[in-house]
């Protein structure tokens, strides 16, 4: 069993999750491995709050007579604002690092630079366009489809971070958020959280219909598979994970989930 002094309370974990993954007011009371362990387990909860906050203005715009594309654009903008664009920045930096074809050390140096290269620009444009396009299709079906997809995508984005924080995934640098959360969660716990989120997504969609429930649960699993593929690529390429990689995983998972849900 974990010694008492190596445990963190649920409150400490929630504060860690919201304080590191959002700009919502949350005073981090502990910055250590136990707090990181509980915090990364609570990451999908932060995604749930972000998803609800993102879906609200989109639904309001539809009710007030706005079109699906406008609602989708505003919905996509909210998570970016609630993270100060850090996840999008991580996506761009990771794309630049992967596209550089440089050794791990040099690629990490490129990722740490403040500017964004061509690979990062293209990655940002494509991801934002795909997210807005998928959400526009979903909002065109109904506000229920759009709102549900928004919440599922936001939760799945943070769930991808939870899985990336499992043991066996090393940090690429000795400092930063990646080093703080890399390997903090037992693999079994991370897998259990993933199964719970997928089941919850399916249950949330049951009022829409059994087909929607299967699609929502499947969207979570397919999005996690896409994020896992990127994670393995980054570990091979950079010899571990960084905070930028965590951000990239979140954006890839969210985008994949939205695309799968829009296909229905």
Automatic annotation (TrEMBL):
It is a multi-pass membrane protein. It catalyses: alpha-ribazole 5'-phosphate + adenosylcob(III)inamide-GDP = adenosylcob(III)alamin 5'-phosphate + GMP + H(+); alpha-ribazole + adenosylcob(III)inamide-GDP = adenosylcob(III)alamin + GMP + H(+). Its main location: membrane. One of its GO terms (cellular component) is plasma membrane. It comes from the Bacteria. Keywords: Cell membrane, Cobalamin biosynthesis, Magnesium, Membrane, Transferase, Transmembrane, Transmembrane helix. It is found in: Cell membrane. Its EC number is 2.7.8.26. Pfam families: CobS. InterPro entries: CobS. The chain crosses the membrane at residues 116-136, 142-165, 177-206, 212-231, 243-263. GO terms for molecular function: adenosylcobinamide-GDP ribazoletransferase activity; cobalamin 5'-phosphate synthase activity. Belongs to the CobS family. Joins adenosylcobinamide-GDP and alpha-ribazole to generate adenosylcobalamin (Ado-cobalamin). Also synthesizes adenosylcobalamin 5'-phosphate from adenosylcobinamide-GDP and alpha-ribazole 5'-phosphate. This is Adenosylcobinamide-GDP ribazoletransferase. It comes from Streptomyces roseus.
């Amino acid at each position: 069993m974990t010694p008492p002094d190596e445990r963190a309370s649920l409150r400490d974990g929630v504060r860690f999750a919201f304080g590191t993954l959002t700009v919502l007011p949350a005073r981090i009371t502990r910055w250590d491995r136990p707090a990181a362990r509980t915090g990364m387990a609570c990451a999908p909860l932060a995604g749930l709050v972000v998803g609800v906050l993102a879906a609200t203005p989109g639904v309001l715009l539809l009710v007030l007579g706005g079109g699906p594309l406008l609602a989708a654009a505003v919905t996509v903008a909210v998570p970016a604002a609630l993270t100060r664009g850090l996840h999008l920045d991580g996506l761009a930096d990771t794309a630049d690092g992967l596209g550089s074809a440089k050794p791990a050390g040099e690629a990490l140096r490129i990722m740490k630079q403040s500017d964004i290269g061509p690979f990062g620009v293209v990655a940002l444009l494509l991801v934002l366009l795909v997210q807005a396009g998928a959400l526009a299709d979903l909002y065109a079906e109904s506000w229920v489809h759009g709102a549900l997809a928004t919440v599922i995508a936001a939760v799945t984005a943070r769930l991808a971070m939870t899985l990336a924080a499992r043991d066996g995934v090393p940090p690429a640098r000795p400092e930063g958020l990646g080093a703080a959360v890399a390997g903090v969660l037992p693999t079994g716990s991370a897998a259990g959280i993933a199964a719970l989120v997928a089941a919850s997504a399916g249950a949330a969609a049951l009022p829409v219909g059994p087909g929607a429930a299967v699609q929502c649960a499947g969207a979570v699993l397919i999005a996690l598979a896409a994020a896992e593929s990127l994670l393995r690529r980054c570990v091979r390429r950079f010899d571990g994970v960084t905070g930028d990689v965590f951000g990239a995983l979140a954006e890839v998972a969210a985008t994949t989930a939205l695309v799968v849900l829009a296909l229905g």
